Amino acid sequence: MVKKVIDIIPPKNPLLERAGEESFLKYNDGAPQGEASQNDPEPESKAEPAVETKPRMTFVASREGAEKKRSGFKMPGKGGLLKGLAFKLAFVAAAVLLIMYGVDLKFAKAVVKIWPETSNLRKEANIAIDPAVQSIDKVKNSIPGLAVSAEDTIKGEFPVTGQKNIQGKAQGTVKLFNNYSTPQRLVKGTRLQAPLEKFQPALAKDETPWFRTTEDVVLNPKSSATVKVVADGAGVKYNIDPSVFSVPGLVGTAQYTFVYGQSFEKFQGGTQGNSPEVKKEDLDNAKKAMADLAKEQIKKTLEAKVQQQGLEIVDASVEKFELGDAVITAKVGDNIPKIAVSMSAKASTVAYKRSDFENLAKDLISNQIAADSIVNEKSLSIKSSYAGIDPANGKPALALVAQITVYSGMSEGDFKKGLSEKGANEAKIFLMNQPGMKDVQIQLTPPWRFNIPRDLDRIEVQTIMD
Q1: Residues 47-93: pLDDT tens digits?
Q2: Whole-model pTM?
Q3: Are 321 and 298 in contact (CB under 8 A)?
Q4: What share of the chain is helix, strand, coil (3-state, %, to 5)?
């Protein structure tokens, strides 16, 4: 006999009991539960009375719940959401701090600007340049010198101021031909005429196109002769190119077409207008100008020689010049625009090393600096000028003017040691308590840094002199 199983026993309700019974018969094909033989069908007249049964009830999850289960997503609670957000914020904060630490480790730096109270020291002295000494003499204020000289022949050209009005007539040679049957005589001064287009620029109305022979010429029949001719007027327009000439005096005769002349070279010498003329004053002025030029040029030659040896001279220290006589080829009355002059020249002086001069200057001004003062080396100024010949030793001397800025306080290294690892405010108080301090500025990088780095190489001290 089959055992009946009831999953859930609901409360007794007639409607539910009936419905459950129908459901039970439906799912069990209408067969009652109990023992039965498959070979012996149950007789209709002996049916067992119906046994009261309880329906089987099955619960199915809602669709919403099933979809959530299939998706694998689980809604966190309120407390879990806050914990996750806090964890993320903590992670980001840690990452930011780590980056800031790395930046600070690599780029940490402090720039400290200080404005101390300063004073200027000045030293003036004459320093002799003595070839007799071998090293700097701090007692006599002298430095080693070297005697140098240079000599050369200087040439120059100087303008002429005189003026002369010149009327120059062109000259040339003409070959005369006589192709007539009888001899022809041309007396001195016979006119020869060139074509008008040969004159450039064109002739004026009062100018004639004539050239005159300078000697008598007798031309035999079928012969020729060369004669020198001079232009009838002055000016460059008579410097004509090769041309054919007619004889105006034969106009109206049979010989006119048979007697003529021809030139084969351009005429020269035609001038008109003002021209330079050498005067005595021009010669005197040229000599004086040549002396000045010779001094200037030989001085440059001397300076170049000194520089090649790594030495130096003061411009005005070249006082010894030896000049020869001026050589001039021009003479009074020459029509030339410039006068050429040459002159021998020699110059000598005493040269020195600039480093010797500066070292002595530094030593002289250092003697005036107090032991507790700090020197601004960049402010050192050393100037020199020629002071003439030192009366004590007869040597050329340089006038020294040296200036330097000093201030009291700690050295840069001591500043750095005192500032290391101090906070910005503490460091400023430390600096302002130093003697002779006017103002202080401290700049830290990166921006979030609040104290000065420990590493002294990351501390930069800038001393500003106002």
Answers
A1: 445 445 555 555 444 454 444 445 454 555 556 677 777 777 777 77
A2: 0.45
A3: yes
A4: 30, 35, 35
